[in-house]
Amino acid sequence: MTATLLLIQTLNGLQFGLILFLIAAGLTLVFGVMDFINLAHGVQYMIGAYLIAAFSAWTGGFGWGLVLALPTALAFGLLLEVLVFRHLYERDHLDQVLATFGVILFLNQGVKFVWGAAPLSVPVPDILSGSVEIADGLLYPVYRLAIIAAGLLVAALLYVLVNFTRVGMLVRAGATNPQMVSALGVNIKRLFMIVFGFGAMLAGFAGAMVAPILSVQPGMGDNILILAFVVIVIGGIGSIRGAFLAALLIGLVDTIGRSFAPNLLRLVLDPSAASQTGRAIAPMLIYIFMAGVLFFRPSGLFPVKR
């Protein structure tokens, strides 16, 4: 257990947490403002990864691919909202869960039909390739630092958008009292469409950013969707500030816990038992952490007041 390993895993945890935030931010807005359970939100993450793979190959550059992928992810999210999700807003949560689960199955098969079942790879952009020395003799990939910087920038822009613009005011009001917002003459359907499309674009951006360091494959958004729901439950449904803090905490707990749990258990167990127990406990740490937070704050860290 060295300081060097701790620093590396902390950076990895921040990177993972910020990716989770990009996904969870849109999900918490959709759930908080629209009271809509969208299990298909993870599919937008997958679609973003496939779009950057396709457009970067077509344009020959990651930057131009990203420029094309983001509006396409936005358009695709709006298309799903108009064709499918808009008809579910007045239905109960069970209908929403079943319908959006069907969308997951349909789109997972759809990407197999278009791109095939084999994983795709996206090259790291040349300008962000290589490593940088962050401490004496310690190298860290530039691209991973770029993901951290991009996540922090988006978080700052989202904070400004939600707290200091008219659209953000309507979103916050919609999360608090959507009936009153509608009664005041705001086109609630248009507000819902904007929130849904923006959330889809954020998830697509997350998928595009991780594509060069992960395999792009069908179903890649399913597992991370579970973590995104954990984030919004811990942070407080409808709270961007809560989603940001919870995502960082989840990223750090998961990454550092997987690295150090076996080492810590060796203080009380023999090495063989510590290794086996540590590997078994590490994936459970985020759920143990969630249970602990909810025990003391059942509504999450920063619940939206209604």
TrEMBL record:
Where is this chain's protein located in or outside the cell? Cell membrane
Q: Which domain of life is it from?
A: Bacteria
Instruction: Alphabetically list the UniProt keywords.
Output: Amino-acid transport, Cell membrane, Membrane, Transmembrane, Transmembrane helix, Transport
Q: Which InterPro entries match?
A: ABC_transp_permease, BCAA_transport_permease
Record keywords: Ion transport included? no
Recorded topology in the membrane = Multi-pass membrane protein
Q: What Pfam families would the database entry show?
A: BPD_transp_2 (PF02653)
Q: Does the keyword Cell membrane apply?
A: yes
Annotated TM spans: 12-32, 39-58, 64-85, 97-118, 138-162, 191-214, 226-256, 277-296
Broad class of the protein's primary localization: membrane
**Which PANTHER family does the entry mention?**
ABC TRANSPORTER ATP-BINDING PROTEIN, BRANCHED-CHAIN AMINO ACID TRANSPORT SYSTEM PERMEASE PROTEIN LIVH
So what family is this one in? Belongs to the binding-protein-dependent transport system permease family. LivHM subfamily.
Q: State the protein's name.
A: Branched-chain amino acid ABC transporter permease
